[in-house]
Amino acid sequence: MNHRSYAALLGVLLSGFLTDTALAEEATLRPWPEYQVILWVSGKSVEKPERVPLFLQRAREMGVTAGMVTGEGDPAHYLKAGMPYYVENIVRTGLCLKFRSPVTDWSGFINGWMEKRDEAAFVRPYCLEDPAWLEQSKKEVVRSATKHREHQPLLYDLRDELSVTTSANPFDYDFSPKSLLGFRAWLKTEYGTLEKLNQQWDTDFATWEEVRPFTTDQIKARMVTGERMPKGPPDWSALKRVEFDPFLDRSALVRWNFSPWCDFRSYMDSVLARSLQALRLSAREVDAATPVGIEGTQMPHAFGGYDLWKLSQSLDWVEPYDVANAREIFGSFMPGKPILATVFEKETNHAMRRLWHLLLEGDKGCIIWWSEDCVDMAKPDAPLTEKGKALAPALKEMTSPLAKLFLRAEKEYDPIAIHYSQASIQVAWLIESTVDGRTWPRRFSSHEGKHNRHARVRNGWMKLLQDMGYSPRFVSTEQVEKGELEGGGYRMFVMPQSYAITDQEALAIHRWRTHQPDDHWRMVASNPTGSFDGHGRYTGPRQHLLPYLSRTTGQSAHHLKGGEELGSGSPYDMARYPANRLGEMTAEEREYMPDLANTSVGIEPPPIRIALDDCVRIHRYKLGNNARLIAFERNIDYHMSEDLAQAGGNEALEKPIQTQALLKEPAHVYDLRTGKYLGNIKSITVDLDPWKPSLYALLKEKLPEEAKVIEVLGGGK
To answer: CATH 2.60.40.1180 residue ranges in the chain?
Structure first.
């Protein structure tokens, strides 16, 4: 394929993932009416055919509704038992470097690389743009879909824990010839001429063939020296002293131009998403009804291919590791599509709490890890293990009539958008990682999940809004550019450390602001907002695009409310809120907390309110025209660690409390757990168990005395 045809093909592939054809394909997917409890089954658990029926019997006793086979595995025992199943890990090589690759020991590989820092290592073991790899992977997908389609599997999983690197660990993949060829072709579609590329990047490439992205070492050298074409590694000690000032001197523009690095990170994000799209479509050509997706995804990050917006547009379903708001972000970007969770818990309470939380978020099922931990096949009667017994009550509750009500209901959100900016995630990583000096490759995702400041600021805003009773959604750069703030009817836009804003975004935000019908809107930003463009180039204050943000100061929360020309600053650090909310706040911290509850100017208060200090999450749903469902849960800061365990730190919320929920208007209220009628009231006294939500129905009319509310609402007996 010549350069011109390659560039043309690339332009088509990158022009957008959701075409009319893709939307039509989505409509053909098989409905997902029931919550599915899937057991991840090892070969050892089913190695003796004569004992498989007993194994499946025990699994059902535990609450399991579905099983699993690998790509070309035999589903005969599930078919005979009348049990659904899903197909796991279809693509064996290339997507996940933890297996079948020369870098399975990632930590050892990185330790060795840091001694010589050889750029030859930047060639990925499997190039995702290698036509031979892609064709081989497509064949695996087609073989699997052809084998299983007649049995209507629940899902096809392309790969578990996939990544451009490993997890979301930083490394400069992929500098292979095919990858660089594709990157240059993309740059031509992005910039048109070499002159414009050099102008954007502050570089001096003489020909397109010379163009290479900056390595991470190289961009960090620029941060130290301000050179257009830095050579050699940076002065690591000097790098550790580098700090970003959003109001820096214009003479330092080159130092803070990250475009030669950010563009490559964005391109590799697109490469992974595009590969998944191609594999998904190959399966859908054979089996148009079964959803195709991935498992074990990572936090939003500059490395690994983890632009969650791009990934979401290439998938029919996903099982995300819930790190740094990943579940909420995918939920915003994939409405109506199946989202599942893997269960690693071993205790009833912890499993009950998280599974109810995820069902209330919209999860359609869960995957239990794994069969050998749950059913003891070494014993003659194959009893459930202690873990299997502990999980059973939680799993059975997920398929109960009560849970079915919430699975059928339509979740309600407030007109609040939180900005998801992959360009800002990239810029933030470069700025935050200066303190690591030469050890930046060891800034593994296990560290990032706990310490990434940009992620903590984002989580701070999410938790504050939830504690106030709101249900916000994330909106991506691409959505903002296309007018989603206006089209979605949003009245508040939160920009959590949105370092980078594209010109199209800035214009769309300005349009949204000026077209508000009244003064009941609000924009909230964390400094420094819009200091970089969408390619990671420092622009400085852009008064012509964001005049209302150009003079905000302070550490974090800045407001622009209806009728104001400039935002007012607050020194409160939103990265601290998730911890502050669980302990005692100082008087100064309370004084400087963002004043989002001021209803004199701003958006409307939520329809149901609870005291902020109670740290309660409120979920609201519509069920038909005459009923609303309400769920109250302790607003846990869920966070999966690298070893796949749920992180602690929520002990303060693991105590029962009594709180008052104030309704906007009276309703006939029923306690869904007891079936008790509480009256036509505007206030609910909620006795909240820390391990399971309190659930209520709000009706326009009182039911007959003999009626059972769950049955009337359609949950069944």
So the answer is: 608-712
